[in-house]
Amino acid sequence: MKELVIAPSILSLDYANTSEQLKELNESNAKWMHFDVMDGHFVPNLTFGPDILKGFKKCSDLFMDVHIMVDNPEMISEIFVKAGADMVTFHLEAVKDIEACIALCRKIRAAGVKAGVSVKPKTAVDALLPYLSEMDLVLVMSVEPGFGGQSFMEDMLDKVRKLRKEIEANNYDTRIEIDGGINAETGKLAVEAGCDTLVAGSYIFKQNIKEAVDSLLCQK
Ligand SMILES: O=C(CO)[C@@H](O)[C@H](O)COP(=O)(O)O
Ligand SMILES: [Fe+2]
């Protein structure tokens, strides 16, 4: 399994104290920053555009993990690739079919950016299994996408186990990320099931950032 990476979700950042929180985040052991893009249509919430990503990139060297929860990922992924995303993860539910999904992964990778595919809680991962070599990451949503601070859906770990089995059997390089309701306890369950990348928003930003990240890194 790959080295465990923590991706703090800045959806939960305290925007009244942005520079202080960013400084703390930069000094923590987090290697990624998780950037949630919501369009008010694919999900009932609205968040950040590309200029905000550019701004964060000026203040941080963290790997920019951009999760696009949008209806038109073909168009929006291009915008965030141009804005400097290191990874763009789009939703399987937002593309026409698996062929369109693979085509978009290839397009993102051709631009020199890592490509991820996400599934909502009600979507199975089975359709992705034959194509994992086309993806740098699969993101398993462990809450309904749209908001931070929801409770972890433990039954999503069956998808993680299935993905891990397939990745190990074929020696794929694909990461497994989980997003929604992650804290020290649920993070441990997720790592045991086979996740190597943990997104956490409210858990990290509602306490000392460095300590929270470290608590997620100490899963053994
Ligand atoms: O994509 C999303 C929500 O749709 C997330 O990335 C949230 O930001 C996670 O927040 P917590 O559940 O960790 O508070
Ligand atoms: Fe997310």
TrEMBL record:
A divalent metal cation binds at H34, D36, H67, D179. Pathway: Carbohydrate degradation. One of its GO terms (cellular component) is cytoplasm. It holds the Pfam family Ribul_P_3_epim. It is an enzyme of class 5 (isomerase). Catalyzes the reversible epimerization of D-ribulose 5-phosphate to D-xylulose 5-phosphate. Binds 1 divalent metal cation per subunit. Belongs to the ribulose-phosphate 3-epimerase family. Signal peptide: none annotated. Substrate binds at S9, H67, G146, F147, G148, G149, D179, G180, G181, G201, S202. This is Ribulose-phosphate 3-epimerase. HAMAP family: RPE (MF_02227). One of its GO terms (molecular function) is D-ribulose-phosphate 3-epimerase activity. The active site is at D36, D179. It catalyses: D-ribulose 5-phosphate = D-xylulose 5-phosphate. Keywords: Carbohydrate metabolism, Cobalt, Isomerase, Manganese, Metal-binding, Zinc. Its cofactor is Fe(2+); Mn(2+); Zn(2+); a divalent metal cation. Its EC number is 5.1.3.1. Gene3D superfamilies: Aldolase class I.
